[in-house]
Amino acid sequence: MIFVTGDCHSDFRKFSSKNFPEQKKLTKNDYIIICGDFGGIWYSEDSEYHKEEEYWLNWLEKKSYTTLFVDGNHENFGRFYHFPVEEWNGGKVHKLRPSVLHLMRGEIFTLNQKKFFTFGGASSHDIEDGIITMDKEGKWRQKEKHYKRIGKNCYRIKNLTWWETELPTQEELEHGLKNLERNCYQVDYIISHCCPRRIESDFLNKGYSKDILTVYFDEIAEKADFQKWFFGHYHEDRQILEKYILLYKQIMKIN
Q: I need a labelling partner for 27 at 20 to 30 A (CA). Which of 10, 47, 149, 200 fits?
């Protein structure tokens, strides 16, 4: 069986036996797919929170099923690349644990005879107060203190709490299109964090600005033949039109 859900932000309590009783019948050949903002790897190894993070990754590993996720915008992208890249079910993954896998961008995986195109990433919409760049002299800390003093809370620190790689490189975009071309643009499901621009602007929040990824998804939506497109990011559970499903708290069985 395959289930899909939305953002976790390092809070995995929705996968407890009480909240998700179906897991009692699952095996490692069954899958939970998280549509970005996994948040399970965030802190540095010298952080006081690192042991807690390790606890939850091991907790997920002990589950009866396999946990899969695409990246969102609230991820520590610097740490993803400390994990080994492996070929798995037709695509490339970062292996956090034997059965906790990051589905990399632009890959196509075959799960239970179904094809999944995966492409994580999104623009952060909670950075209107700006991005602080760290420097060797430590002046950035004074700027952060100033922001807090004047009540500016919607800021991030580059390569500490925000990464430019929340949005894809041109190489990643081209890689995704090449994989879709090899499959004649035919897949069963698309898994992402954000959604096509036309879905975002027409049905979600007209205030969001278009970016390289949402416009890219417009192109894919036009070209690809797919059954459903699952995404997170917008913190709602709802179906949009026939094919687009926004997930947050809900865990939906799809196969």
A: 10
